[in-house]
Amino acid sequence: MTASPVLWILGSDSDLPHIEPGLEALRALDIGYDVRIMSAHRTPDDVEAVVSSARSDGVKVICAVAGGAAHLPGVVAARTTLPVVGVPVPSNLSGGLDSLLSIAQMPGGIPVGTMGSNKGGGKNAGLFAAAILGVSDTRVAEALSTYREKMAEGVRKKDAAVRASV
Amino acid sequence: MTASPVLWILGSDSDLPHIEPGLEALRALDIGYDVRIMSAHRTPDDVEAVVSSARSDGVKVICAVAGGAAHLPGVVAARTTLPVVGVPVPSNLSGGLDSLLSIAQMPGGIPVGTMGSNKGGGKNAGLFAAAILGVSDTRVAEALSTYREKMAEGVRKKDAAVRASV
Amino acid sequence: MTASPVLWILGSDSDLPHIEPGLEALRALDIGYDVRIMSAHRTPDDVEAVVSSARSDGVKVICAVAGGAAHLPGVVAARTTLPVVGVPVPSNLSGGLDSLLSIAQMPGGIPVGTMGSNKGGGKNAGLFAAAILGVSDTRVAEALSTYREKMAEGVRKKDAAVRASV
Amino acid sequence: MTASPVLWILGSDSDLPHIEPGLEALRALDIGYDVRIMSAHRTPDDVEAVVSSARSDGVKVICAVAGGAAHLPGVVAARTTLPVVGVPVPSNLSGGLDSLLSIAQMPGGIPVGTMGSNKGGGKNAGLFAAAILGVSDTRVAEALSTYREKMAEGVRKKDAAVRASV
Amino acid sequence: MTASPVLWILGSDSDLPHIEPGLEALRALDIGYDVRIMSAHRTPDDVEAVVSSARSDGVKVICAVAGGAAHLPGVVAARTTLPVVGVPVPSNLSGGLDSLLSIAQMPGGIPVGTMGSNKGGGKNAGLFAAAILGVSDTRVAEALSTYREKMAEGVRKKDAAVRASV
Amino acid sequence: MTASPVLWILGSDSDLPHIEPGLEALRALDIGYDVRIMSAHRTPDDVEAVVSSARSDGVKVICAVAGGAAHLPGVVAARTTLPVVGVPVPSNLSGGLDSLLSIAQMPGGIPVGTMGSNKGGGKNAGLFAAAILGVSDTRVAEALSTYREKMAEGVRKKDAAVRASV
Amino acid sequence: MTASPVLWILGSDSDLPHIEPGLEALRALDIGYDVRIMSAHRTPDDVEAVVSSARSDGVKVICAVAGGAAHLPGVVAARTTLPVVGVPVPSNLSGGLDSLLSIAQMPGGIPVGTMGSNKGGGKNAGLFAAAILGVSDTRVAEALSTYREKMAEGVRKKDAAVRASV
Amino acid sequence: MTASPVLWILGSDSDLPHIEPGLEALRALDIGYDVRIMSAHRTPDDVEAVVSSARSDGVKVICAVAGGAAHLPGVVAARTTLPVVGVPVPSNLSGGLDSLLSIAQMPGGIPVGTMGSNKGGGKNAGLFAAAILGVSDTRVAEALSTYREKMAEGVRKKDAAVRASV
């Protein structure tokens, strides 16, 4: 039980910038995480090995990140009963419609909690993982409330600036 | 703290059949739930009141179900830091593409874990709620493992039947 | 009753350039407006407070501007019986198809008058607000007629220029 | 000035069932309306004649209803500065995506307030017309508030029924 | 009867570059053309006047060019029984899917011969107009055959170049 | 020169009902036609033979009808400089979006005048063929004007009926 | 080496009717096949075991059939270097657009030869498997040629029937 | 029998960069190939001549590459019973949705093994051609296994680098 509670698995290291805001959110909430590059298609055995032992290793939520056919989140979900958060990476096809459908349209029995294929998806994956941890961890729940307050303050500052300028 | 751990909020009672497989899954896993009909647009105060106090009432996961513009899951997520599972109901527009996009494409900051707009989405919402509970509840985690084993057995039986007949 | 007749609510200040042509149209028509930055998800109480009192404050039309899941126009419409004009901001997904569907596909009972997710949408929101005011305000109706005449003249000038050059 | 305040123009009489809920809403709100069948493509002169004189005839809002290429709302809007509500009729192509795009994606300068291409679109056109009238007509504004209260009550009754049965 | 046989009507002079290859094709085929900037929504009377008299003026084919809601080709077709070629200009929404659907999905009775919303659409409008003229004009038919031969030679030269280099 | 002026080529005899309204329109306009079943993929030599000699056989317009990948109109257009009208048959994919795109998105050089993938497409193919013939055939042009007048009368009758009943 | 040369793997036995025409085609070509029901998500170990040993068991082509997220073909392709034919089953979302994209949009490195999500996809999978076998098996190549001749004859018979009746 | 086993046919030499990774893969696997530029629409006779004799010339797999209406793969498949791999080139319309649908949605009887319209599609066409050859050529099958091992090593190196840096 030495793993961080949140495990990110990316199909490609080129997806790292997309999830950086999610990693940042976890750091802001003081939640540990690990990041792995593993491919559902090119290193399926590695995915299976890491995911199969994830719960016993101490992982509590897995964020799986992929684009296009984007099988990784479903393949991960097939190997664990931990909650799997799917992050569709924006692609060339309608801005990621393929990524989104390939992750969201899972058959009944194996769910993946899917984020948007927009810019906010990477950040939201981190925050959703935190929300899951917050179900049983009061400190995280309170940190999320504080985080939201800060977001609201940010909106209000912009509102004040616009009202002053328009 | 008297509420069931899983709270379903539906925008319309016509969506009940879509989530019945999810309720059935929760019953099979011996997890309690409540079902409410509340509209993000027609009864927004009711949504706010129920959701704002959900965590203190003992709710741990909220499954929000809606079709078309499908604002309910996002509106619910705006009022709680509990994990919100969004269930897009199939619609007339491309089989629910509007429902899916309206729920999944949340802005950075307020995540919704989105299910598919397919037939399996309602069932998967129940199972995903269970997976979230299973993070800190060993009994649920084990029940999910058993549930998966049964699903695998079901596939294997069909495989045997087909191999015998083809 | 001190508010301007047209109230713009934007989910993000990054959407300001998109609606600037609409603000310009209102200035050309000598119609007052206010601009607020408020988020359906991050500052829902602020939205509710401002919108609930809008009619009594003297607001006559609300233009709500958002992208992606774009719940803001629907959330605004749920809190007022004033006409709400929804402005879908172009996004990465098919150029704003998500924004458009999330705003247009409202359930029966709570309408939002939706503009296009194209470049002209921001301008048209201002003009549509003016058309609504023009129903009972003869000065505005006449200003709109003049505005249209100028547009027609602009087209005719371009026609003449092209005919001269081709 | 003998016309009803709301004028419905339909491209085809086969679209009547789609807008019947909107007519019903107007009757419930005690607002008069007329219904015309006129085609932007087959009887363009009739459309022009009726629309050009609409304001002076006493019309205050025009609801234009069409499917597929659905040019009628835009063609109507080109001939009046009255607010035009566009109602995309569901079609065979993705459930009316063609109708929706053809109505919503107007160029800057000539706005159409577009409803959804879903079942609720016809009803919402009537309610949006009422909201526009309510800007300057206190009786209508109050009738709309009452109408909303009844809708809320309807949702609450269904909620109670579901809570009693589940 | 002094008009050129091919009349181009563009909703905006910003669409000129899109059709330049079509004008070039007509010049190559020695076919005369005129270009007008007229808007279905901003100068509908001008469109009507020019189109209604087009046949008697000697026009034989009209190429109507527009993007987004793109009503111009249909509005033109409503005013003449000459063949109307519709040219959807690429837009922000899926690269012009809105333009294409708004032009192609005409109701039964008023046809528009629609080109693609791709780069080749402007060129093909010119060539299709030529093909229509070629039905009764042997010189044009022969010029088209020669034009095709040159295109084939162009492909064969590229083939030879690639085979030599790969 | 014994062929009818309009040649219909269908990829499958199951598409006959879709074009029956177009055949009916040609009969109403007293224009001759032939109908062939030939497949771009299963009988490509037959397509080539018939199309290559079409002009010299007296054909003036070819209407090519296909669904799904729908290569037939483009394959026909590659073998003749006669105007080719493409008719996308409604399919299971978004109501014929595949058929429409496969026919409309031709590369620059080989145009196909594409009809809608809606119910009206088959009828419009016949009317568009007539419009092409009407460029040089005064009788057809006049028959088309009469046909349009009858359509307008049909709309006006429905208008009168609705006005009497609502 | 006792397996049939073509191995079909279906995610669900409900997909059997979709591929029956493909099985029929293989029988007509006298090519042996096996059919298995195995799920990428519910029985991933079974998929892995069967696919990993497929080549050594004598399998030459695998046809993998799935709908929605449709990960099965990609998951199969990840476990073998045999050619994998992907068969997207029509679904509720745009007639199978999700199935098609989830199978076709594979990342560089692991190809899947994808069929259409239309009715013909199941039949074509069988014929494509045959074409692959025909590369090195003259008997199969000749059987395919005969099969095509019969298809062409079928088209010609329909052509003759239509020409006789129209 | 002097041709290379893999024949690439491109509709345009501008598509060469898209397939360069596929050519590179074939070189890495020591498999010969030829590249031709031939158009289904502009040089149909050339396509027919080359494809009809391909099998007797020693070709074993044809990769056909096209964008937009993208008829080339289907036109090629109509002229041979060799396996045809279709490569949809990314386009302006939703990133190549038109190309993908035009290639994938073939009618029952004439299959095309379709790659993705994404960046990986060109590479995968080469690898899929290799997989087909590997059915009967042990050297190629072994080279493919080695190739995959190298890809897996590449992923593992990136994984190690990310784990070291995050």
Please give a structural write-up.
Eight copies of one chain form a homooctamer. The first copy, chain A, has seven helices and five strands. With 166 residues, chain A is of the alpha/beta class. In chain A, helix 6 crosses helix 7. The longest helix of chain A has 28 residues, at 138-165. The mean pLDDT of chain A is 97. Chains in contact: A-B, A-C, A-G, A-H, B-C, B-D, B-G, C-D, C-E, D-E, D-F, E-F, E-H, F-G, F-H, G-H.
Walk me through the topology.
8 copies of one chain form a homooctamer.
Chain A: E1 6-10, H1 16-28, E2 33-37, H2 44-52, H3 54-57, E3 61-66, H4 72-77, E4 84-88, H5 97-104, E5 113-114, H6 121-134, H7 138-165
Parallel strand pairs in A: 1-2, 1-3, 3-4, 4-5
For the biggest sheet of chain A, the summary is:
5 strands, parallel
Oligomer: homooctamer
Task: Provide the succession of SSEs of chain A.
Answer: EHEHHEHEHEHH
Into which percentage range does the β-strand content of chain A fall?
A: 5-15%
Class computed from helices, strands and strand pairing of chain A? alpha/beta
